[in-house]
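The following block was generated as part of the benchmark described in Methods. Ligand: adenosine monophosphate.
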Amino acid sequence: MAEVSQRASILSFVEARHAVENHATRVERAGIEFVALAESQGRVLAKRITADRDYPPFHRAMRDGYAVRAADLAQLPATLEVIAEIKAGADPDKLPKQIAAGQAAAIMTGAPAPAGSDAVVMVEYTCSENGRVTISRGVSRGDNIAPAGSEARANDLLLEPGIAIDYAALAVAASVGQENVWVYRRPTISILSTGDEVVELTAHPGPTQIRNSNSYSLAAQVRDAGGEPHMLGIVADDATALRERIVEGLAGDLLLITGGVSMGKYDLVEQVLTEVGAEFIFTGAEIQPGRPVVFGRAKGTYFLGLPGNPVSTMVTFALFAEPMIAALGGGRPRPLRFLHARLKSEVRVKAGLTRFLPGVITGEFAHSEVEIARWQGSGDIASLARANCFLVVPPDRDHIPAGEWVAVMKK
Ligand code: AMP
Ligand code: MG
């Protein structure tokens, strides 16, 4: 993995991503807090969740039908005496004591299968009349019954710390009665925009000024990644002002700086970071957009310097900031995975960089197709806003013909 150093280094995309993932495994996680289950969606679980009892807690019928002894259906059709009707939630003291040979009980999905029964015949294969049921299909022992404890035993581990609480995890926690859950605190992510030309969106921009959009896109991406944005506003391309604000930002769990990392005379971010004692892990990645991206650590806090072009800012966030925020927030490291879709029209680029081009996926089911969004370069946010993915072009390709399966990253 890339060593921390004072010297500049430009890594390939894969090396840069792995460097971030490796450093992400070393970060100190945020503290933990106890939140209402209903408020926990998207948070990272901090303490294990175990089964409070066996699941299912009783032999549970999985179909509406008749609880029977499978052996009674050796000869078909078979007619059995119906001795009870068992509803879901039935009082256990009122269940039949035993289903004897030649007997059956009408039973509903979710109801406890009575003693003596060993299978449930679906109602579709039965015909009942005058307290008797005639069954036209055989069953094997165990059919349509989930035995007590077959899904989990009391105290079994159901959810491990580090998982993001999604709808399914919420259901698990609810099923074992966890009204509240322990989750990791959201890490505080400082966001600093730089540039003499950048003004707040409430300002009336002069002819050569542009409004700050990066702080807004970054705050949204930070929230999506599980962080809490801490807005540091805009700072001019002035070393003293920049230094003051960078030091302030390093008090958070991660500092994101946009702009000022290119090769221009007033791109001062690297210089100022060096002055505050930064160690650089990389000072560029062979990607487009986003080549000048910078990753390092200063005063014990990791930082990312993201190029100011709005699309570059968004792409480099997705590639490099997301794993850091996930790790700071207690999440498990997640490798970057791409989907695949068929390329709709050919792509020609210069080889040498891994490209993440705003794309549009269309089609459905197995017939997804992707094409590059009409795009005017790294400043074209409107085109990215209309796109729904990034088409990934590997560095060794300068031409991809239409019809080829290509890698796609979700937006
Ligand atoms: P830089 O990375 O500082 O060279 O900036 C590259 C381009 O991104 C320039 O055209 C900037 O005006 C633009 N830019 C920089 N910061 C922002 C921002 N916060 N919001 C929108 N555009 C920005
Ligand atoms: Mg700038």
